[in-house]
Here is the input.
Amino acid sequence: MNWLTNYVRPKIRALYARKEVPDNLWHKCPSCEAMLFHRELEENLHVCQHCGFHMRLDPIKRLESIFDDGAYEGVELPKSVADPLKFRDQKRYTDRLKEAQTKTGRTDAIVVGDGRIGGQPAVVAAFDFGFMGGSMGIAVGEGLLTAAKLAVAKNAPLVVVPASGGARMQEGILSLMQMPRTTIAVEMVKEAGLPYIVVLTDPTTGGVTASFAMLGDIHIAEKGAQIGFAGARVIESTIRETLPEGFQRSEYLLEHGMVDMVVHRRDLRGTLARVIDLLTRRKRSEPDDTDFVAAQAVEAEIIPPAHPAAIQAGDD
Here is the structure.
């Protein structure tokens, strides 16, 4: 064998081999179908830069976007019975729970944080729609009770951010019992004279809407969020009438008096800070003239005496 045949073929293909590209670099907007780069989407709090569509937000990112400087302390929630009814449909309920826990990295559909909003102490409970549709079971009821007790103990307002399809069917009547339990939790906060604020996000439906989600002192809704009890198709098939355009959306509910404000996600922290400041000022039994004038100014900024559509914040 001579030098003409004794050689190693160069691996030219390796020079032009395609590098593996992560699949999550780009996201398509569900509304306008624009392609959004993941870093820009995260910086914009998962709101489409082109059409303003508000996508669902992870509860941890939600808490970071609400609390001052994104700083807060996570609250450990009590453990609950995992499968009280030994329920099984196409899968065992325990298997569904394990899948959701592996997917989201959390034990259930609620996260509670303790921090400051606008320099004032606050407790925030946020739902994770990615965990079995944010459905409300025993663990969620325990989480809201824990958040309410913490708010009372710290003399701080309670802010709840639901994103849920309603009660968790795998827990049957026990999930429905969380409706009165969460209502009691809300009453604990109100009896202590503390503000209870609800931020309605997409979607807020079913037993969640029929309980704590509609008991707030102030109801703030994100733009375009679906809010209601039964689905639009169920309602149409029941009443046999065509529903108006935008039915069960934030803007429609604002016009009909079901919510107080429709706010862009980037303005949510500032809005919550003003609302908390207003409600805590009102709590004082004998405010002086300066406090009274300041409270009136804040109230006029939040709820001006104009057409309801005028109180929408963050319109482009």
Remarks:
- The mean pLDDT is 88.
- Residues 138-153 form the longest helix (16 residues).
- Residues 27 and 281 are 43 Å apart (CA to CA).
